Amino acid sequence: MSQPSPFIYLSPPHMGGQEQQYVQQAFDQNWITTAGANVDGFEQELAAYTAVPAAAALSSGTAALHLALLALGVGPGDEVFCSTFTFVASTNPIRYVGATPVLIDSEPGTWNLCPTALEDALRDRQRKGRLPKALLLVHLYGMPARLREIQEVTQRYGVPLLEDAAEALGSRYQDQLLGTFGQVGVYSFNGNKIITTSGGGALVSADPKLVEQARWLATQAKDDLPYYHHTAMGYNYRMSNISAGIGRGQLEVLEERVRQKRKVFDTYRHLLQDVEEIEWQPEPEGFYSNRWLSCLTLKKGCRLNPEALRLRLLEAQIESRPLWYPMHRQPLYQRCDYFGDGTSDDLFSRGLCLPSGTNLTPADQERVAEVIKTTFRG
Ligand SMILES: *Cc1c(COP(=O)(O)O)cnc(C)c1O
């Protein structure tokens, strides 16, 4: 009797091997808390990897976005421009600080923020005499946004750039790592991201003072006095020394994970090259995605929809997921101002994320491809 096929997950954690040693050191020294050698080491190693002067290790990517907005001085009554095609964790922190998101659509060449829609929105706001406090730019599925065009616009209007690189650690634009283009960059180490700390995030900046302020806010904004003295409202957002230990082990294998993710993508493209109805998230010249998730779209007019494909995969014990449902469609955000031409709606209606674990075996990938091929044949 044949064994039932094991379940294939979308993007499960993949340990490198050294993580437990770092965690063991934390146990040996009894530093089980939100400070210690692993937190310091992880921050230094992340800063060295991304070639910035400083990084702050935090409890999640969401917390990092929250602190990044505070560090940029965003507050009640302000507007923040944000990619509409994203996960809700990008927009929620804008509301945490009492500001209002203005949602900007994607363009088809990267699936990320459209520079023309951005310019339209900025022109509109300039006419109204209220420019946004920041642009929160998302690099979706690891693909760099059109940074040159976008920065040209934001610099012309004097709007600070905050990069949500939660999905894009290890991705590059013109050979420079994502997260290091804006005034602040944010990463996530959630369990499904390219590397994980079991849950965590980080904030990086070329400005060490900004990072220092974020660390201070992340530890209840305690003033430098022997007793508990506070001049500002802080948070409990620091990464633990245990999580940071996992992160140090994961950083050692990050570049290998990027290569593996890209190989997973190339393999799908190869295995499914004869399925004419399928297209892939494009990667323009000079763009280098970590291919966090391998994402496809079905061609316009295709007789199948992605939900049918998702259900067929699920029947075969394979997890796949729709693309992000745009924020301007969410009950939570549909009343926000939105600038665009429906590109993200179109991508959502035709797209699917395939299992993209770096621990996926060639046989697993063939299994996935076979189900997709049979679905199209059937
Ligand atoms: C995962 C993710 C986040 C949030 O990160 P957490 O560590 O899960 O809080 C933010 N933005 C995007 C685009 C993400 O994919």
UniProtKB/TrEMBL annotation:
N6-(pyridoxal phosphate)lysine: residues carrying this PTM: K193
Active site feature: K193 (proton acceptor)
InterPro entries: DegT/StrS_aminotransferase, PyrdxlP-dep_Trfase, PyrdxlP-dep_Trfase_major, PyrdxlP-dep_Trfase_small
GO biological process: polysaccharide biosynthetic process
Assigned keywords, A-Z: Aminotransferase, Pyridoxal phosphate, Transferase
Cited CDD domains: AHBA_syn (cd00616)
Molecular function in Gene Ontology: pyridoxal phosphate binding; transaminase activity
Family: Belongs to the DegT/DnrJ/EryC1 family.
Protein name (Swiss-Prot/TrEMBL): Aminotransferase class I/II-fold pyridoxal phosphate-dependent enzyme
Native source organism of the sequence: Rufibacter glacialis
